[in-house]
Amino acid sequence: MNKEINKVVLAYSGGLDTSVIVRWLIEVFDCQVIAFAADVGQKEELRGLEKKAMDTGASKIYIEDLKEEFVRDFVFPALRANAVYEGTYLLGTALARPLIAKRQIEIAEAERADAVCHGATGKGNDQVRFEMTYLALNPTIKIISPWKDDRWTLRSRKAMIDYARMHKIPVTSSLEKPYSEDRNLLHISHEGGVLEDLWMEAPEEIFVLTTSPREAPDKPTYVEIEFSEGNPVALDGEALSPAELLDKMNGIAGANGVGRVDMVENRFVGMKSRGVYETPGGTVLWRAHRAMESITMDREVMLIRDSLIPRYAQLIYNGFWYAPERELLQALIDESQKEVSGTVRMKLYKGNCEPAGLKSPNSLYSEQFATFDEDDVYDQKDATGFIRLNALRMRIRALKRKTL
């Protein structure tokens, strides 16, 4: 009789959940488990991962550096769109998941695996992001989602810790975990635990990437960001790769307390949840990008593009990165970015970041036209006819009302 699953590729972090899932998969399916850990900028969390995975029962592990691909092919396209979910969230986790799932599918195909597996719960957004990507890229792949499987009985943190100890899986977690975190090169998120009380201010000790604005330098920090067709390409005159640039910007912005967000968001599954996010470099790049667009983008083009931002951001948040409508929007957005090149000088000070200078060879700003001083290029009398023509429909309505 053929077994249900012979080989599965697991999205593996080395934390409590995925460490337990390795052993659970072996017990339930009697299959090979290939662990896959994506380095998208989580820093020290990858240390010792290979030994831990193999000791836990994995037959093989892939640990791959995806930082450049993450920033170049996911973060920067979203930056070109000025994508912000519900006006606040810069989509750090939402942008990483489709990349991880894409590479997971590629490994599954190379290894001739029957299934892929993730450790996301049935309450959150990540389950959607993983599984939507799996199905978009390999419509016949089998998906194992333990938290939605009737055979998964480990429904509490205590149960998982007990299970890990029983199977001699190294456990660094405790029952008193104050919150959960997800980190990559764009951000770190803090959710759950103590943060579920909306009346409680986020404790200072949770922050990792950002200095408290109170403790930030007392003098402003200035940084010059060069853009080419909507993409950041250099800091202070130094050309950098996408990942290098974002990493360096994180350090500069984080030291100045920039990039903290505390919000209640609407999950795709229908519930509201609180997220505390640190996105230092991304926040500065987003503000700088908008500033560069202000002098290089046509007014009506900007109006159309801006009307698409909520929809584009929602698509990413909800897991539709590989959907045809997201790709269609991206093509339109990228067309709008062809003239968005130049340099923005940003001023960072105690949690704030503001443009302090703009220049571009494609600038549409004309001091000759904009000046309040006397000029020879604009006849102010032209404005009279312009105003009367634009007011015509309102005048007709007012005249009609007077005759009634």
Taking strands numbered 1, 2, ... along the chain, how are they ordered across the largest sheet?
Answer: 3-2-1-4-5
Compute the average pLDDT. 94
Structure annotation, total helices: 13
Helix content: 40-55%
Biggest sheet, open or closed, and with what strands and sense?
5 strands, parallel
**How do the SSEs run, as a string of H and E?**
EHEHEHHEHEHEEEEEHEEHHHEEHHH
Radius of gyration: 25 Å
CATH superfamily of the domain at 180-297 and 339-359: Argininosuccinate synthetase, chain A, domain 2
User: What's the β-strand tally?
Assistant: 14
Class derived from helix and strand content: alpha/beta
Give the secondary structure arrangement, pairings included.
Layout: E1 7-11, H1 16-29, E2 32-39, H2 49-56, E3 60-65, H3 67-80, H4 92-110, E4 115-117, H5 126-137, E5 142-144, H6 157-166, E6 180-183, E7 188-191, E8 221-228, E9 231-235, E10 238-239, H7 242-255, E11 260-266, E12 272-278, H8 280-296, H9 299-317, H10 324-336, E13 342-349, E14 352-359, H11 367-370, H12 382-390, H13 392-403
Parallel strand pairs: 1-2, 1-4, 2-3, 4-5
Antiparallel strand pairs: 6-7, 7-12, 8-9, 8-13, 9-10, 11-12, 13-14
Helix pairs in contact: 1-6, 3-4, 3-7, 4-5, 7-8, 9-10
Provide structural commentary:
- By secondary structure, the protein is an alpha/beta fold.
- Among the domains are: 134 residues, Rossmann fold; 139 residues, Argininosuccinate synthetase, chain A, domain 2 (Alpha-Beta Complex), CATH 3.90.1260.10.
- α2 links the parallel β2 and β3.
- α3 packs across α4 and α3 packs across α7.
- The radius of gyration is 25 Å and the shape is elongated.
